[in-house]
Amino acid sequence: MTKRSLAQHPLVVILDEGYGGIEVEAQALAAFGARVVEIPCRGSAQAVRQSVTEAHAVLVRESPIDAAAIDAMPNCHAIVRYGVGVDNIDHAYAAARGIYVANVPDYGVEEVSDHALALLFAVARRIVTRDRAVRQGVWNVARREPMYRLRGSTLGLIGYGRIAGALHRKARGLGYERCLVFDPFLKDAPDHAEQVDLQRLADEADVVSLHAPLTPDTHHIVDAAFIARMKPTSILINTSRGGLVDSEALASALRENRIFGAGLDVFEKEPPSADNPILSLENAVVSDHTGWYSEQAVDDLRRKASEEIARVFSGQTPLNWVNRWDS
């Protein structure tokens, strides 16, 4: 791999705005005399390529960093994703170019698991439709919209990392008696859980919550066949990546009441278009990819992402290095 010398005042480019400044990043990288700049690219690959040409490191939220962008920055040491998923970065090509790609997998764990629970409660207790009805003068029509007890139910988790583990812990406190897990990367079943295949998880879970990364293998892991196996009283929760779910199949199942409902914080295309059929369905509760957020989580995320760049600038490997090569 190419060894790159560090400039006296390395340039760190933050792609995409939204965290309220650059102070946290600048402080974390002050020892290197780093120049930290924030450049809004708003998802434009062309804007990214134009913004990173002089970069020695890049911090990125959602904008794509493709092979052309990587070719455009010959001095780059590291690309760090503000978040967990790195599907917007061509990390294999970055590895071929000797550029570290890292992420921040250990932030927002409590927030996302809380948000998954919030969506579950909102769907299961029909909070949105009841709120709307009361505001319109409707009262005490409970059995018109049947609801089912959560205690004693079965939780199904697709993917079992930190967030799924936190949700599992919280769900047990609510009285979920069984937990079924599908995760081919697990060697052993987590405590108080059983490893199963996807078919059994779909058949038996009362709530299916998604916590897997988006890869070619997990794209539409919840497809029409999976949804067809779900119980008519079951609920789908997605706080991970929109592409894990076949949106058309889900919209069809919700429209026909073949499952109870869905709580979605993520969509295949973000933001969703106004004519997305899921937005018109009363048994879907949606939010704007905000499950990760709290003020504390923002501070954690910015600091931990910047610390990964500091490690690379110090000649170390990133703590959360996702495109490993033989060194």
CATH fold title of the largest domain: Rossmann fold
Helix content percent band: 25-40%
Uncertain residue segments: none
Average pLDDT score:
95
Q: Give the count of structural domains.
A: 2
CATH C-level category of the largest domain: Alpha Beta
Q: End-to-end span in angstroms? A: 8 Å
Q: What percent strand?
A: 5-15%
For the largest sheet, list the strands in their spatial order: 8-7-6-9-10-11-12
The class by helix and strand makeup works out as: alpha/beta
CATH architecture assignment name of the largest domain: 3-Layer(aba) Sandwich
Shape type: elongated
> Main beta sheet: strand number and arrangement?
7 strands, parallel
Number of strands: 12
Rg estimate, integer Å: 22 Å
Order of helices and strands: EHEHEHEHEHHEHEEHEHEHEEH
Number of helices: 11
User: CATH homologous superfamily of the largest domain, by name?
Assistant: NAD(P)-binding Rossmann-like Domain
